[in-house]
């Protein structure tokens, strides 16, 4: 029987070597951790749970900033169809306490759409700024775990402070700060969870985060219903405390990515983590862990982005996948906001939208290893676009079919959203993967920045909301044609390794 304590990678000149040294880091981790065991599952589940709080902060303003219902006090001078802004204050009243919403508490019912949408716009703007400022830290100095902890901590504390806002301007600033912290939560969680496993389980582990995001989305209408009639501030308190507890769990129990540690030259730490999560009986010796990882120096904060855009092939990939993400993000973040434009119950609409993410998750989880990335993205973006355009073109003629088409469009956008993130992981090597994924998420959020403006314009003419949503996601989805197919591919670790793999594929095809 072979000695179970022999090094995983031994000297190639030794005649006693039982295992040939793996040629890539991906093969090394595959050989060390073996099958997908409980250690990897628990780590992936804990890391992916960050998406719950990500979803809550992303869509919380659907309830905190909604315009409450009202009723007339003087039937002679007021009726339900009256313009609220033209009525004397003594002729009408809110159905609930004014503190149920920021709109009623601060008397914003007659303010312009820019002021009403300022908190939501500030949040997405914070996401953009935070993504640019923090995205490369996970690849360069902080690493995946520390960046996840810091992002969740900022998101938690800013959410708690939001509950004490004294004006719309303070509220908007704190929403900006919340978005700034939230910007890298999903990116770090997705990259860290997928880098702890081999390629066989990469798609399934990545899909765990999408399931957690769905669960977080589903908790919002529940929290909103429980808080019905109470102050909007409680929603921020209820979502901030669990996030703070989660930060403590991340700090104490989550491991750093062994891939990132090896790329940074911290091989002893990487070996220790691989020994902890590995299901094989094989152990590793630090002195024999000699991998061909050339970009292992500690670059400055923006080195990762400079490396990413230096190569023409990586820049083309980045721009193409960001264009696809922009179109998907506009629909994904915009659809829940347009529910108020449909003649349908807001709470049920949010619930149905959240539930539509479940089949999107199931498709990603069970079929990601078998479906082709490019064909699937083109199909789902086209389906989402067609459904949105139908809503805009037929309008009230559809009746209850409007909500059905809205759900089809949102479901397609959700599936395309999930696939785009996993596709991005496969398109870029370890040294720039987190930065590339962060830039794609920035493109998704950037699409969301335009959504509130289109939703406001769509109240008068649905072409400016559903019509534009459909055209943008359908046309921008075509950019995926210029990207390579990555189904079943091995994750590369350096730019040179990825370039060599591309040249080999081109040579084989040629």
TrEMBL record:
Transmembrane segments: 149-174, 205-223, 235-254, 315-334, 346-369, 376-395, 401-424, 436-457, 463-483
Superkingdom classification of source: Eukaryota
Membrane topology term: Multi-pass membrane protein
The keyword Membrane appears for this protein: yes
Protein name per the record: Major facilitator superfamily (MFS) profile domain-containing protein
Region (Disordered) residue spans: 1-23
Bias-annotated ranges (Polar residues): 1-17
One annotated GO molecular function: transmembrane transporter activity
Residue stretches making up the Major facilitator superfamily (MFS) profile domain: 40-485
Cross-referenced Gene3D superfamilies: MFS general substrate transporter like domains
Subcellular location: Membrane
Pfam families in the cross-refs: Sugar_tr
Entry keyword annotation includes Transmembrane helix: yes
One GO CC annotation: membrane
């Amino acid at each position: 029987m072979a000695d179970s304590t022999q090094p995983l990678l031994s000297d190639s000149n030794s005649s006693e070597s039982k295992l040939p040294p793996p040629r890539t880091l991906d093969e090394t981790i595959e050989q060390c951790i073996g099958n997908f065991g409980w250690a990897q599952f628990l780590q992936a589940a804990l890391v992916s749970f960050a998406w719950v709080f990500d979803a809550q902060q992303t869509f919380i303003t659907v309830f905190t900033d909604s315009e409450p219902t009202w009723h007339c006090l003087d039937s002679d001078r007021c009726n339900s169809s009256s313009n609220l802004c033209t009525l004397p204050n003594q002729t009408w009243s809110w159905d609930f306490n004014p503190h149920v919403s920021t709109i009623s508490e601060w008397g914003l019912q007659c303010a312009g759409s820019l002021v009403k949408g300022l908190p939501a716009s500030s949040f997405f703007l914070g996401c953009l700024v935070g993504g640019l400022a923090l995205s490369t830290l996970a690849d360069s100095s902080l690493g995946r775990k520390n960046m996840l902890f810091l992002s969740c901590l900022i998101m938690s504390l800013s959410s708690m402070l939001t509950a004490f806002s004294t004006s719309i301007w303070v509220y908007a600033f704190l929403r900006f700060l919340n978005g700034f912290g939230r910007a890298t939560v999903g990116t770090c969680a997705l990259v860290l969870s997928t880098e702890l496993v081999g390629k066989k389980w990469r798609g399934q582990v990545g899909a765990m985060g999408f399931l957690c995001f769905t669960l977080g989305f589903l908790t919002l209408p529940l929290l909103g219903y429980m808080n019905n009639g109470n102050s909007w501030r409680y929603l921020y308190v209820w979502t901030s405390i669990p996030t703070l507890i989660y930060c403590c769990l991340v700090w104490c129990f989550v491991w750093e990515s062994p891939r990132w540690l090896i790329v940074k030259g911290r091989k002893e730490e990487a070996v220790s983590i691989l020994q902890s999560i590995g299901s094989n009986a094989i152990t590793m010796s630090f002195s024999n862990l000699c991998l061909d990882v050339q970009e292992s120096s500690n670059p400055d904060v923006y080195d990762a982005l400079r490396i990413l855009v230096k190569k023409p092939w990586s820049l083309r990939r980045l721009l193409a996948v960001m264009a696809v993400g922009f179109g998907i993000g506009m629909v994904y973040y915009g659809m829940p906001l347009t529910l108020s434009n449909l003649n349908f119950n807001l709470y049920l609409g949010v619930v149905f939208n959240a539930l539509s993410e479940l089949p999107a998750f199931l498709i990603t989880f069970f079929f990601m290893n078998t479906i082709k990335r490019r064909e699937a993205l083109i199909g789902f973006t086209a389906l989402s676009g067609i459904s949105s355009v139908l809503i805009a073109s037929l309008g009230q003629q559809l009746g209850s079919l409007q909500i059905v088409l809205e759900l089809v469009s949102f479901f397609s956008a959700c599936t395309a959203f999930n696939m785009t993130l996993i596709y991005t992981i496969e398109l870029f090597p370890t040294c720039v993967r987190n930065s590339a994924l962060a830039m794609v998420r920035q493109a998704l959020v950037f699409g969301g920045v335009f959504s509130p403006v289109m939703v406001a314009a769509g109240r008068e003419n649905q072409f400016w909301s559903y019509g534009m949503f459909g055209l943008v996601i359908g046309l921008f989805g075509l950019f995926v044609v210029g990207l390579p197919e990555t189904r079943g591919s091995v994750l590369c670790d350096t730019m040179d390794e990825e370039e060599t793999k591309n040249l080999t594929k081109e040579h084989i095809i040629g």
